[in-house]
Amino acid sequence: MSVSDFRPRRSVLFMPASNARALEKAKTLACDAVIFDLEDAVSPDAKEEAREQAVATIKFGEYGHRERIIRINGLNTDWWQDDLVAAASVKPDAILVPKIETANDVKAIAGALLAQGDMDTAIWAMMETPLGFLNAQEIVGASERLKCVVIGTNDLVKDLGASHTPSREPVITALGLAMLAARTRDITILDGVYNDFKNTEGLHAECEQAKAMGFDGKTLIHPSQIETANNVFAPSIEEVAFAERMISAFDKAKADGKGVAVLDGKMIEELHVEQARKIKAAAEAIADIGG
Asked: Looking at 233, 248, 272, which one is the last position of a domain?
């Protein structure tokens, strides 16, 4: 992803598409993206209604800067094809597919979208099973339409027979594998949800951990979590100021015919400036949406 293509995805909120009031409320929330969920948050007897409401929401809803993503049901269900056909008819910003485990899963979705004449809708893939994480590299390389990886830690913890811990040590290897794979193509990677939505301190700590690992943002299950995610995953005033100083120092050094610069006693090379430009671009993009 080039600096000019940067799009904030600090806070990506799951909303059950069967809940019309929730969909309406999402228009007023400060999240960067909304996932209209047809899968886990929707009971089997409400799948059709949720699908219809998601389509109507994409077609007629006013969501401003917020990206609009439809999470369809998994490829192992009887619903996913109808979900995909419905989604392709209104072309959301992306289709999120749960429990992606192989490159063929991604290719199946890409092929199905093409069959519907949809050339534009991005694919987002959820990695949430042991096999999915083990196949992370082939998954991210399966299609140019794959633009984002979303971590599903709840299913992973269940499949491992592990426990949710504050350090997330039981799943840290899987998170690292997904991160490495995503960065081979420089695509967005979003951390999994934090279940205890009333525990702001715990959420903040997990967001800080995810940011330190390199995640671009966090998926959320409740509007009360948006502010914390937005604050943590946005560059701080201090980070932006230092990035601007770094860029200025390096540009001056280049103008003087030098390949490196020195700032506050530290050597500045092109790789440092590249990261500084990303920080500045993120801050500008967030400012553009009123963040």
From this structure: 233
- d(CA 238, CA 262) in angstroms, rounded, equals 19
> Which of 77-81, 257-261, 266-270 has the highest average model confidence (pLDDT)?
77-81
What does the alpha-carbon distance between residue 152 and residue 55 come to, in Å, rounded to a whole number? 24
How far does CA 290 lie from the centroid of its chain? 20
Residue 241, amino acid: A
* The two three-digit tokens of residue 287, written as one number: 């400012």
- pLDDT tens, residue by residue, 92-133: 999 999 999 999 999 999 999 999 999 999 999 999 999 999
User: Residue 25: what residue type?
Assistant: K
Q: Cα separation of 25 and 223, whole Å?
A: 10
Residue 254 tokens read as 């280049």
189: left (phi over 0), alpha (psi -120 to 50) or beta: beta
Residues sharing a CB contact under 8 Å with residue 124, sequence separation 6 or more, in sequence order: 69, 94, 95, 96, 97, 146, 147, 148, 149, 150
CB-based burial of residue 253 (10 Å sphere; 0-12 exposed, 13-18 middle, 19+ buried)? middle
On whether both 35 and 152 belong to a single domain, the answer is: yes
Based on the fold, state whether residues 89 and 121 are members of the same structural domain. yes
Residue 38 CB contacts under 8 Å (≥ 6 apart), including other chains: 17, 47, 50, 51, 54, 70, 71, 72, 73, 79, 83
Say how many domains are in the chain: 2
User: What CA–CA distances, in Å, run from 267 to 4, 11, 261?
Assistant: 26, 34, 6
Structural domain boundaries enclosing 192: 3-233
- Note whether 177 and 136 are within 8 A (CB): yes
**Model-wide pTM > 0.90:** yes
